[in-house]
């Protein structure tokens, strides 16, 4: 077994980019918010804020109690995406980036002489130096080096911020025994509780379990993959076709009513339609969800003939809205998702919709083309008119937005 993976994890990425670009924020506790509202939570925190116990998910009100001097800034997803590509280029100037795993994580494959510990550490130092020189000294990263991606990720978390940890093959498994189960990527609160029910409470016990025991504990093939990952083996994954896509949004205070819900849902749906068409996919199910304060969420879902036509999907949305609950509870978050995604080759045309198909396709192509050329709100369907400034581009953990399709500019 050799060293095969070098994992780069950028520390407090959103907050660090803000501090790098805005010198007045440097050295100060920063909380990054998706929307500037007292009722929302931090989606990122600077290390100065983390020192007070503030982290992703901390409510604004709680963050103020923990740190009265905290400064809140509104997230700028397009800036983070642009910086992300800039950082990839910098790392690429040092060694090839094998895979981008999220907006702030990437893994590089070590080959040849790079697999020697001293050379791997020199490469890590070279990457850090290049980032400091070209991206700025506020953009710090933790680097993990190990026999596989999983262990390199574990290593990158062992020393933050700005750390560099190498787990050599001969150190396995003892090097892992000082960690908690939750320190291993893929084991969250619920999975930890599940493992505890199977009498696995430590990493040593996890490592000692055989392949079948882990398969049973996980209830899926992921348990067998964990067996391999702990031993430095790179598991094989079959890449699945995209099965769903969608957008969600925490509502600004002024939109927290039925009219605002409808407008923002229209806006999300139209954005999702353009994104779906960029993948050449059709949706065969649509669902919407509205979260309320002091009341269960309202959710509706419906099957439909596979389509990428915005007008047809708007019709489904309006059908849902006719059943919108009559309540005084405040709606604070909404979402639209398309599932059962298929390509046009996978479905037969609906015999009752043959005639309009070509004209619908041309209409959608024209809308997408004009919005791409002149700005995303050049042409839109009227239902979104009152929410054009809402639901800006967001960055999901495992999805880096395509700026040509998802930018709000």
TrEMBL record:
It comes from the Bacteria. The keyword Nucleotidyltransferase applies. InterPro entries: DNA/RNA_pol_sf, DNA_pol_Y-fam_lit_finger_sf, DNA_pol_Y-fam_little_finger, DNA_polymerase-Y, IMS_HHH_1, Rev_trsase/Diguanyl_cyclase, UmuC. Keywords: DNA-directed DNA polymerase, Mutator protein, Nucleotidyltransferase, Transferase. GO terms for biological process: DNA repair; error-prone translesion synthesis; SOS response. GO terms for cellular component: cytosol. The keyword Nucleotidyltransferase applies. GO terms for molecular function: damaged DNA binding; DNA-directed DNA polymerase activity. Residues 5-188 form the UmuC domain. Belongs to the DNA polymerase type-Y family. This is DNA polymerase.
């Amino acid at each position: 077994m050799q060293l095969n993976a070098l994992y780069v994890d950028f520390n407090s990425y959103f907050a660090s980019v803000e501090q790098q670009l805005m010198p007045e924020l440097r050295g100060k506790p920063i909380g990054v918010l998706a929307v500037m509202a007292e009722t929302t939570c931090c989606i990122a925190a600077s290390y100065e804020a983390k020192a007070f116990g503030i982290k992703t998910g901390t409510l604004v009100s709680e963050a103020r109690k923990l740190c009265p001097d905290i400064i809140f800034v509104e997230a700028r997803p397009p800036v983070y995406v642009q910086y992300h590509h800039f950082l990839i280029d910098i790392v690429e100037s040092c060694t090839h980036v094998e895979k981008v795993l999220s907006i702030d994580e990437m893994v590089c494959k070590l080959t040849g002489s790079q697999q020697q510990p001293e050379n791997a550490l020199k490469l890590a130092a070279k990457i850090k130096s290049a980032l400091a020189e070209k991206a700025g000294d506020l953009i710090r990263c933790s680097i993990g080096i190990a026999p596989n991606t999983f262990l390199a990720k574990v290593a990158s978390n062992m020393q933050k911020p700005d750390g560099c940890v190498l787990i050599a093959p001969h150190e396995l498994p003892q090097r892992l025994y000082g960690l908690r189960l939750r320190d291993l990527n893929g084991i969250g609160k619920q999975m930890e509780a599940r493992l505890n029910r199977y009498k696995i409470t430590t990493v040593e016990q996890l490592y000692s379990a055989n392949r079948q025991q882990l398969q049973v504990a996980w209830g899926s093939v992921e348990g067998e993959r964990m067996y391999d990952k702990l031993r430095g083996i790179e598991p094989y994954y079959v890449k699945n076709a995209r099965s769903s896509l969608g957008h969600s949004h925490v509502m600004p205070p002024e939109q927290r009513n039925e009219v605002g819900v409808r407008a923002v849902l229209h806006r999300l749906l139209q954005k999702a339609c353009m994104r779906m068409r960029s993948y050449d996919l059709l949706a065969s199910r649509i669902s919407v969800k509205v979260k309320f304060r002091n009341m269960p969420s309202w959710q509706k879902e419906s099957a439909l003939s596979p389509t990428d036509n915005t007008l047809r999907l708007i019709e489904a949305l309006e059908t849902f809205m006719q059943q919108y609950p009559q309540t005084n509870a405040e709606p604070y978050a909404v979402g639209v998702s398309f599932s059962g995604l298929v390509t046009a080759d996978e479905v037969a045309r609906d015999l009752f919709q043959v005639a309009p198909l070509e004209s619908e396709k041309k209409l959608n192509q024209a809308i997408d083309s004009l919005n791409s050329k002149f700005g995303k709100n050049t042409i839109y369907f009227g239902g979104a008119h009152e929410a054009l400034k809402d639901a800006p581009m967001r960055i999901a953990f495992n999805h880096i937005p395509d700026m040509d399709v998802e930018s709000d500019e």
